[in-house]
């Protein structure tokens, strides 16, 4: 078809998309090829069907039951028809998903009297790889050539060869390359061989037809994920070639409707049903899902005509995306996208390549951009894409050139699907995958390419685009800064409580008093809830009422509608009777940034239901154990204390994810600050001048200025009004080493790494793009975005004075900043502290 026709088709899809799925406006859907979003038409048709017919459970004689049976038989036929499969040659078994279909085949082989051999292609999805565990021997083919060689060897095999199963994906779910479909036929050339073929077509059929019209060429077993074609219903299918069905005769399980007659007592006997699907569909079928499948096939055909048409459309889009991404270069001419393309694949040729582009991004100097960083920005910009290992261990390992020992070493170094340490030994451990489907349009392609250009193409040497950190020529003047505000977050991830001006607030080693003393834990998993997943937590406003001795929690904004009670109080005293008992303290494991932290949950039903109703998730309030007066071992029980290895020199640190070179690249790296690996620290300090600078840039681009609260800062330091206007020192804190606030000293521990959580508006709980977008353009160092400084209090050694026994700070107090080399000569108090 000519390109102009393709563009016309694309425009039709674009219109369709806006009509059928207005929610997709502003969202670019680039995950799960073929998960078509034509929800409205489909659900309406399904609901009409449900409202106008009475469907009973099959297996009985009632009219409703007979109707169900009749419909299901028709739909089965219709599904086979989609793949041009003759019902005399094939049968279709409904299963939960493609994996369940693979498992049925695996069980059949496992239940044979003889052992079996299993071979699978390197590009296999994990669901195929797992079959090897039940085989007596198995082999992973590391290339198509190896498969070809093995097939040729089959032809010369002697007659009584062993039972074997060969499995491969029709399309790699990693990079979308399409594998040859003639292997099953060629495996049959030797009539004596006992090799069966299993084709995983889950990825292929989402955007491509599959032709089973010649049963001599067809795989013995073909598995599909129907939801990858239609989006809904959640169903899979196993298509069995009748001539291979004898393998199921040895099946050692039966249940529900899969047998005709069962004798249980005395004699043990059962008669198996005739057809393959009757024998393999254990228990009651998901009848309503199967009805929905009928509606899905109809709507899909009406909107997109056919899988053949979808294939042309997506092939056209993918080759455009591929060439657009490939053509992106940095100012110095280096490539931006490293695309993982199979040697046999050609974009634009639908028999070798599906509409998927898998790649990693590189900096202008050839370093790898972290997937986690891309994912955060993509989330802000509403791109739905996938990163990481992509459930394809063999494909990922060979594309990324990771040896088995490296995969293992990476695993023990803490690398898991979806975490931040995704570049190890300067190799990426995962990749970015963009998948196109029936509903994708040219606009998606250009939006995505623009996104990569906007955030990852470096036009000039990085030094020029970063804000210039002012050099401090003048000595820091006592009183240039003051504490503008103090905030605590009594319940982790909920709203801030502002310390009233003039109120002396206690500061401890583990942070400001009452800061993150409580958290909310999920009743099922025990994990601490956070705004990243539950942005409405911003509308839960805790306050510390020292007069009444209570923590007061109020719901604001739209959360007030969720609950009949809008305020509760919890005693500040940690009365043990309040907590879940059995052994008095029942400890919940709150996972805070991956660390297990023991918190005790409140047993009060009122408290749990207040928070559960407000957020719409079953949770408990929990409290971290008391920490005494801030010294002794207990002081370490809160706020991920293991990270505060202050005494450790950075050069001694060899922790997974911390690279020695990091020291040279994070802001203020010339200062010998220890690096925190976690975004947890006792105190977070931000500078008003830096926030002003950031907001100027945001406003210049027409964005919405950020409030200090989104950074979850405890201390906001501002320059005094009498400082000459225009001399504000944005990001001066990068170079600070110590702070003095009133009579107290603090150490700066390093810059704070940021994620998209800073985009949750703390007044409305809505997600914005800012300030993360502007931060990532101006404060990104080595792929990490920083704003604010981790800070910890330095307790005084001389404990005889009131200010040492009860250290406090308050709003309005003067602040003095020390640079690295100013410490010892300048201040007796501080140098005494440090030398002690
Ligand atoms: C998605 C996918 C699977 C797994 O399918 P489920 O329906 O989730 O079981 C297996 N193989 C490939 C190639 C896939 O794309």
CATH class descriptor of the largest domain? Mainly Beta
**Biggest sheet overview:** 7 strands, mixed
By secondary-structure content and strand pairing, the structural class works out as: alpha+beta
Examine the coordinates and then state which fold CATH places here, giving the name of the CATH topology of the largest domain. Answer: M1 Pyruvate Kinase, Domain 3
Q: Which sequence of strands runs across the widest sheet?
A: 2-8-7-6-5-3-4
Distance between the termini: 80 Å
Count the DSSP helices: 23
Hetero compounds: pyridoxal-5'-phosphate
Oligomer: single chain
Low-confidence stretches: 462-476, 582-596, 627-665, 674-679
**What CATH architecture label of the largest domain applies?**
Beta Barrel
Number of strands: 36
Overall morphology: elongated
What fraction strand?
15-25%
What can you see in these coordinates?
With 836 residues, the chain is an alpha+beta fold. The protein has four domains: 169 residues, Type I PLP-dependent aspartate aminotransferase-like (Major domain) (Aspartate Aminotransferase, domain 2), CATH 3.40.640; 147 residues, Aspartate Aminotransferase, domain 1; 251 residues, PK beta-barrel domain-like (M1 Pyruvate Kinase, Domain 3, Beta Barrel); 106 residues, no CATH class. It is built from 23 helices and 36 strands. The chain has a seven-stranded mixed sheet with strand order 2-8-7-6-5-3-4, with helices on both faces. A seven-stranded mixed β-barrel has the order 18-30-29-34-32-31-36. It starts with a helix and ends with a helix. 42% of the residues are buried. Bound molecules: pyridoxal-5'-phosphate.
């Amino acid at each position: 078809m000519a390109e102009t026709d393709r563009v016309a088709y694309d425009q039709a899809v674009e219109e369709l998309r806006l009509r059928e799925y207005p929610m997709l406006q502003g969202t670019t859907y680039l995950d799960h090829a073929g998960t078509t979003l034509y929800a409205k038409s489909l659900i309406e048709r399904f609901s009409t069907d449900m409202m106008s017919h009475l469907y009973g459970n099959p297996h009985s004689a009632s009219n409703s039951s007979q109707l169900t049976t009749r419909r299901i038989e028709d739909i089965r036929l219709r599904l086979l028809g989609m793949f041009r499969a003759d019902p005399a040659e094939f049968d279709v078994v409904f299963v939960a998903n493609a994996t369940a279909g693979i498992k049925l085949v695996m069980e059949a082989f496992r239940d044979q009297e003889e052992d079996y051999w299993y071979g699978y292609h390197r590009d296999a999805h994990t669901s195929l790889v797992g079959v090897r565990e039940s085989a007596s021997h198995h082999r992973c083919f590391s290339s198509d050539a190896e498969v070809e060689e093995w097939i040729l060897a089959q032809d010369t095999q002697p007659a009584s060869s062993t039972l074997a199963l060969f499995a491969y994906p029709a399309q790699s779910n990693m990079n979308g390359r399409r594998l040859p479909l003639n292997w099953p036929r060629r495996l049959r050339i030797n009539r004596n061989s006992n090799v069966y073929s299993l084709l995983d077509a889950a990825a292929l059929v989402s955007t491509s037809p599959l032709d089973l019209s010649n049963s001599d060429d067809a795989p013995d077993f073909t598995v599909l994920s129907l939801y990858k074609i239609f989006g809904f219903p959640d169903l899979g299918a196993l298509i069995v070639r009748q001539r291979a069905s004898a393998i199921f005769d040895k099946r050692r399980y039966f249940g529900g409707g899969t047998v005709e007659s069962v004798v249980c007592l005395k004699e043990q006997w059962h008669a198996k049903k005739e057809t393959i699907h009757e024998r393999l569909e254990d228990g009651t079928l998901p009848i309503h899902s199967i009805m929905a499948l009928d509606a899905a096939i109809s709507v899909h055909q009406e909107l997109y005509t056919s899988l053949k048409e979808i294939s042309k459309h997506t092939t056209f889009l993918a080759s455009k995306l591929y060439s657009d991404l490939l053509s992106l270069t940095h100012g110095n001419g280096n490539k931006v996208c490293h695309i993982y393309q199979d040697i046999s694949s050609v974009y634009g040729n639908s028999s070798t390549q599906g509409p998927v582009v898998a790649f990693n991004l590189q900096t202008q100097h050839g370093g790898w951009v972290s997937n986690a960083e891309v994912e955060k920005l993509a989330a802000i910009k509403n791109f739905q894409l996938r990163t990481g290992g992509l459930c394809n261990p063999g494909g990922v390992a060979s594309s990324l050139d990771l040896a088995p020992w490296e995969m293992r070493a990476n695993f023990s170094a803490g690398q898991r699907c979806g975490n931040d340490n995704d570049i190890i030994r300067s190799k990426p451990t995962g990749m970015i995958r963009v998948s196109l489907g029936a509903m994708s349009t040219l606009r998606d392609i250009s939006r995505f390419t623009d996104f990569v250009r906007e955030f990852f193409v470096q036009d000039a040497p990085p030094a020029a685009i970063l804000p210039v950190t002012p050099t401090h020529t003048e000595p820091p003047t006592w009183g240039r800064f003051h504490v503008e505000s103090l905030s605590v977050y009594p319940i982790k991830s909920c709203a801030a409580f502002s310390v009233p001006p003039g109120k002396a607030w206690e500061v401890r080693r583990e942070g400001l008093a009452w800061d993150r003393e409580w958290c909310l834990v999920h009743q099922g998993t025990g994990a601490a809830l956070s705004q990243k997943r539950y942005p409405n937590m911003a509308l839960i406003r805790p306050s510390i009422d020292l007069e009444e001795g209570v923590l007061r929690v109020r719901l604001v904004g739209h959360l007030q509608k969720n609950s009949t009670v809008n305020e509760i109080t919890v005693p500040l005293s940690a009365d043990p009777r309040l907590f879940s008992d059995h052994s008095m303290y029942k400890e919940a494991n709150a996972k805070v940034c991956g660390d297990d932290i023991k918190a005790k949950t409140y047993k009060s039903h009122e408290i749990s239901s207040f928070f559960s109703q407000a957020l719409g998730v079953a949770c408990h309030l929990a409290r971290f154990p008391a920490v005494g007066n801030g010294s002794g071992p207990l002081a370490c029980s809160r706020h991920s204390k293991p990270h505060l290895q202050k005494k450790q020199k950075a050069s001694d640190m060899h922790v997974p994810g911390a690279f020695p070179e990091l020291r040279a690249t994070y802001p203020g790296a010339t200062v010998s600050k220890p690096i925190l690996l976690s975004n947890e620290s006792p105190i977070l300090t931000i500078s008003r001048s830096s926030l002003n600078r950031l907001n100027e840039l945001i406003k210049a681009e027409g964005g919405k200025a950020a409030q200090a609260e989104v950074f979850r800062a405890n201390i906001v330091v501002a320059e005094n009004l009498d400082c000459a206007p225009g001399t504000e020192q944005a990001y001066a804190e990068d170079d600070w080493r110590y702070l003095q606030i009133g009579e107290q000293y603090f150490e700066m521990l390093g810059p704070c790494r940021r994620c998209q959580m800073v985009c949750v508006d703390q007044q409305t709980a809505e997600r914005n793009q800012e300030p993360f977008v502007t931060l990532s353009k101006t404060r990104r160092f080595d792929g990490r975005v920083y704003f604010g400084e981790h800070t910890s209090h330095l307790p005084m050694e001389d404990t005889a004075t009131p200010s040492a026994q009860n250290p406090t700070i308050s709003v309005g107090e003067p602040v003095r900043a020390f640079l690295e080399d100013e410490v010892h000569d300048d201040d007796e108090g501080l140098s005494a502290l440090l030398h002690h």
